[in-house]
Amino acid sequence: MSNILSAFKLVKNYQSGAEKVCAVNTVTLDVDEGNYLAIVGPSGSGKSTLLHLLGGLDTPSSGQVFFDGKNIYHLSDAKRAAWRNKNIGFVFQFYHLVEELNVMENICVAAFSLKARAASQKAKELLGYLGIEKRAKFFPSQLSGGEKQKVAFARALINGPKIILCDEPTGNLDHDSQDKVIDLLEKINKEQKKTVIIVTHNLQLASRAHKTLSMESGAIK
Fold first, then answer.
1. In degrees rounded to 5, what are phi and psi of residue 112?
2. In this structure, is residue 13 part of a structural domain?
3. pLDDT in tens, 95-110
4. Tally of helices (H runs) and strands (E runs) in the chain
5. What is the count of structural domains for the chain?
């Protein structure tokens, strides 16, 4: 199994008033293609910051992130954004759906690499795969929390990314919806062959991953 994503001595510092806060402290890790990795730890341990660095959403204070052997932080901002749009799908705790757009539009608006007709067809296929094809014309306000998160997954998958990064994907859901998202993540990993990295407080979700890492005070324990 080949390595797809790795971090080497990754550091992220923030300035909080007069105090320097180390959110990510010299993290080194390797993720194999097709792996399902969970990162757990208390609030403030640096999990989300690490995820953002791995996905090119934030810039490290020092250290490196490699995708297929290439350092993503040697790319210009524009090239890194293009790399991110092509290779990374993000799913967040609070969905980040556009309230004024219906489900189909919310998915298609993220289709950077597809023309309108192809994006629409791909979105329909994803809605069918996720079991919410009857919600295509609904607006976010008409959806349950679990349905909103499924739309977020469809949006994350629309460009055919190699890696899905999830930040507390069950954190805003009721118990039944949590179970469905846990099953869905496993399904995407197994059937779609996607590399999945999640950060979570949900130990049931983490237990389904191939490997679990624990973070504390910005470092991997």
1. -75, -30
2. no
3. 889 999 999 999 999 9
4. 7, 10
5. 1
